[in-house]
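Dear colleagues,

For the upcoming journal club I promised to circulate an example of a predicted protein-ligand complex. I picked one with molybdate ion because it came up in last month's discussion. The inputs are reproduced below in full, followed by the predicted structure.
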Amino acid sequence: MALMPVEEALALLLAAARPVEAENVPLDGAQGRVLAAPVLARRTTPGADVSAMDGYAVRAQDAAASATLTLIGESAAGRPFAGRVEPGTTVRIFTGAVLPQGADAIVIQEDTTREGEAVTVTETAAIGRHIRKAGGDFATGETLLAPGHRLRARDLALIAAADVAEVSVARRPRLGLLSTGDELVRPGEGAGAHQVIVSNLYSLAALAREAGAEVIDLGILPDDMAKTRAGVRDALGAGLDVLVTTGGASVGDHDLIAPALTAEGVALAVHKIALRPGKPLMFGSPAKEAARPLVLGLPGNPVSAHVCALIFLVPLLKALQGVDVPPGLELRPARLAGPVKANEQRMDFQRAEIVGDEDGLPLVRPLPVQDSSMLANLARADVLLVRRPFAPAAQAGEDCEIFPLED
Ligand SMILES: Nc1nc2c(c(=O)[nH]1)N[C@H]1C(S)=C(S)[C@@H](COP(=O)(O)OP(=O)(O)OC[C@H]3O[C@@H](n4cnc5c(N)ncnc54)[C@H](O)[C@@H]3O)O[C@H]1N2
Ligand code: MOO
């Protein structure tokens, strides 16, 4: 059976991602949020010409090596000198302090000697030296950051320096996580050998939060059609932007998610794709309202769920917040450290180690076991080695492509 290519599924998903509305947040709650409006500087910085060093403010023409100047005052950060540097005089100055009128250079204190009020210059001054010009960083009204930008630690300093206390950002997408399967129990609850711990909940919630979502744990549904339908119905009515289900996505007798979603009015635009791991992936939206929540059905196998979340959920959450997400997969170049077999129709994302580098490219070796239920080697992997559909066998030293496990 021909399966939908990964990039086609991704394009359908991103096309459905209309951005959420904006809200204002104070700067100390803005980390990781995505700007919904540009940030404009509300002040010019520095606000005046200031010294970049501790030393003496001078008129360069008076301050050749061995000239002696008379000290007439001090300019410290926050406490400017009120007077003027007249010929033959100097003002003690500190880093960040306003340059006094009349001065046009700074001589650093290491290049002077001082006896009382007499300051002798030992290195000739140069006009403009060690002076930060007013507006050298940015000026009032300047656009500092554009909409769609995700705020990093350094952006917060810039915004604060621009005297902006509050920013307009995309509301956090509300994401509900619905786990399914009779076998699932939570960690610490004394799972028997026949049971499985609901590990996906933790990796998916973490990935979603890292991508800016507010995550709601909607619990674990049993493998029962009526209960699955009821759980899905409640989730669809819970005011979510995105509903993520895990498990029950395949074709077994207990795989109820696709029929339950369809019965509850979700139109599945994607169901089964050419991806390993992650073939049973589903994507859809409620047929009636045609809007929210977007529904992403992930396979139950933990590695499949994680890989699908990296490929689909993270870009979807970014797009919902107005980030300009690239239309396709962002693969990076690498080199093979050993031979790999020919691939079949599914794009293959193999857990791999980086074992060195060659010509500036990481040297990558797939881990020997690729079973999509195995989490220990997902934690051990450095990257995912990507094999395109029908890629021929390749040898050590050949170019390859990788997909990051972290941003
Ligand atoms: N005859 C076929 N069988 C299977 C196919 C197929 O095409 N034909 N596809 C296989 C592929 S590929 C995958 S992936 C799995 C996915 O199946 P489901 O999405 O239906 O997942 P489940 O059967 O519910 O669970 C699979 C596995 O994962 C465990 N699980 C489920 N939920 C969680 C969770 N939240 N955290 C941790 N582990 C979870 C579950 O206990 C099972 O062990 O189907 C193949 N079969
Ligand atoms: O595609 Mo499944 O996701 O092989 O494990």
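Two points we might discuss: The chain has four domains: 6-20+171-320, 22-45+136-170, 50-132, 332-404. Residues 276-279, 299, 301, 304, 372 surround molybdate ion (ligand 2) (CB under 6 Å).

See you all on Thursday,
B. R.
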